[in-house]
Amino acid sequence: MNTGLILSNAFRNLNKRGTIFWAIVCILTVILLGVIDLLTGYEFSFSLFYLAPIFAASWFAGLRLGLIISAASTATWLFADLESGSAVTTPLVTMWNILIRFWFFAVVSLLLDRLRDAYQKEQELARMDRTTGVSNSRYFYELAQFELEHARQFIHPFTIAYMDLDNFKEVNDRLGHAGGDEVLQTVCGNARRLLRATDVIARLGGDEFAILLPGTDRTGAEAVLSKIHSSLMTEMQSHDWPVTFSIGVVTFTAPPISVDAMIHSADELMYSVKRETKNGVRYENLTG
Description:
By secondary structure, this protein is of the alpha/beta class. 65% of the residues lie in helices and 14% in strands. It is built from nine helices and six strands; from the N terminus they run αααααβαβαββαβαβ. It has helices spanning 3-16, 19-40, 51-61, 63-83, 91-127, 137-154, 168-193, 218-238, 259-276; strands at 135-136, 158-166, 200-205, 208-213, 244-252, 280-286.
């Protein structure tokens, strides 16, 4: 696994942590910084380090926790200053310091929250096929690589299906590209309703799609793909669209050598259906 994928997986795992986890981690970090701040005295400034728990809270748990950690950091910083002998001439100075410090931390928290939202939207757009709303090929490869590594570590089967829309060119010729887009959107919407939240459907290009079923054996794959094929055919007939589906489904009981090998196996099986009969689903078990 390359470094980029390791970092991506680590970041994804951190994002899955709940608010309580980040609240505990950030509060403990603030307390630790306060102790260090107190022990080193008011002549040494640790203000920059308080941004670390504020960043973590705002980015991974949201603005609300970010503001709470900002308030906790302000209070801890003030307490450490006062206890270490920092002198103020009037209570107004103390109030001013509180307001300025909290305002600074709060602004940082707000900016991080906005930046996170913008980043997430950008990530979603970068991973999405704009026509159908499903994953694009680049993101599919990333998820497939993650599943491949997971299967190598925990030794479980998984399934990949490669689906091609037969006669799709006729739709484009008859209805134009807008009609073709409607067909693609209908196919994806219909398939997604029959998949689990952990399953992935992606457009690999043109009228070709891949479906990844993590932790799914041959029996489970047959149950899902037969439903999808039947449902899609009913949908096509109801719209009088001349589209059928050639699908190759490969279940790996042991991980293949690469994602490319995984997709190639399902692609070859799909083409065997397309060459012989079209409009069918063919299944195969592979051991790597």
